[in-house]
Amino acid sequence: MNRYTLAAREIRKSLPPEPGLRDIVRFASLAANSHNTQPWKFLINEDTVNILPDFLRSTPAVDPDDHHLYISLGCAAENLVVAARASGRSTETTTHRDEAGDTFIRIALGEGEVTDTMLSDAIPKRQSTRSEYDGTTLSDAELDQLAEAATREGVHFHLITQRMKLDQALEFIQVGNAAQMDDPAFVDELKSWIRFSSKTSIEKADGLSAPSTGNPSSPDWLGPIVFGFAFRKKAETAKLARHLASSAGLVVFVADDETPEGWINVGRSFERFALMATALGLCHAHMNMPIEAASIRPEFAKWLGIEGRRPDLVVRFGRGEPMPMSLRRPVEDVIVA
Ligand SMILES: Cc1cc2nc3c(=O)[nH]c(=O)nc-3n(C[C@H](O)[C@H](O)[C@H](O)COP(=O)(O)O)c2cc1C
Q: What is the pLDDT of residues 140-155, one digit of tens each?
């Protein structure tokens, strides 16, 4: 087994029989997060974990108002809650503002029933699977389970499975993608988070590693050159069409409130959806272009029937084969005293 696979396995090892807070924080850090920047810090007190934003890891080009950053914190919070409950703890989650006015999450832990074990077991197996799926549809029972998992006060979601609707959505995705590829700041920022070589992937343990995006690793000097040649609009447009055609559907998440609290809620709803999908043996991956490209977003919202509001995440789902796992920084690096 190569060093990359070993590193991915190590961070994803199962919870021990009596997990401590560090084990639970490790599971929280396995959450989905934008560009795998891992924009979080965990402040542990006796029975409380605060999840703080790490603005040194923000991505201003794709995420100028820290919308994705707060969704990522919501994803981590949901993993933390699920892992804590599966280890017999109760959880109470609240949001607060620090002295600078920045929102953070506090999770108070106590004694409780053992619940959520199915979703907790899915945490180390969940991944963004950026490949072609097998094109099959989901049963009503599967769709119901996904919908039930994603249901959360403060969040609405649109499950789209009709092929005609998916074809219409594809146009927004492709136009959004073209707008992003025409934006040098977006492309430069994306490139800065790609870890082209295994060596750098393992050293930094963050960012988008080549294997997890379906590309071979390459030397750090060569990767950006190959990326420049391979990252072409025509090829990307065709790939998006194949990816959506092979998927069973799309889910679009919309927060009631366009605030950090609202975005944290979206992260929690999406992460639960993703964990349930994983538990059911299903795959998911983001197709966020129409919500990231600000010029496309209003038309996309209108098409969804929510004119004037902000759709927050676009995620495809279906059946496919797992890909190499992404890495995370060691838990010691994300815990602050
Ligand atoms: C708010 C948010 C936005 C994301 N946007 C994209 C995206 O546009 N394209 C994509 O391929 N993945 C996207 N992702 C998935 C992350 O890149 C992924 O979670 C991260 O690289 C870690 O990989 P993993 O999900 O396999 O653990 C997003 C995730 C979050 C939480």
A: 999 999 999 999 999 9
